[in-house]
Amino acid sequence: MAYAAYCESFGAIAAVSSPPLRAGLDWAVLDVTVPSRDALRVRRALVNCPQAGVLRCIPQLDEQRVRLEIRLPAHLAQDVMQRLMACLPSGEMGPLISWRSHLQRHGLSHEC
Fold it and tell me: Which domain of life does the UniProt lineage start with (predicted)?
C-alpha cells in the first residue's frame, strides 16, 4: 500500500514546506478513526489548529473507514479533541501518545 504526501489549504495560506519541529516543544500523536466520508471534515477542523496536522491516513477499505494519525503540540491536545468532537457525528479517538512512542511504533528510533 502506498501513501501520498499532499497539501490542502481550505482557505488557509499554504506554506512551501512544513515547519520544522521546534526543540523544546512536546509533540504528541492522536489516532482518530472515522468513516471515510468524514476524513475531509477532520482535515478542515485542523486547518486553524496551530501546528496540528494529519501525518498519515490509513484506509480500512472493508469497513469504509480511515485511521488518521494527527500530530499536534501536546499542550493543545484538549483543544484539538474538542474541535474534532464538535465537527464529527461519529468516530473513535484512539490513544494520545508521545512523538517518541509514535516513532518507535513505526520502527524509527531517531527524531525526524
Answer: Bacteria
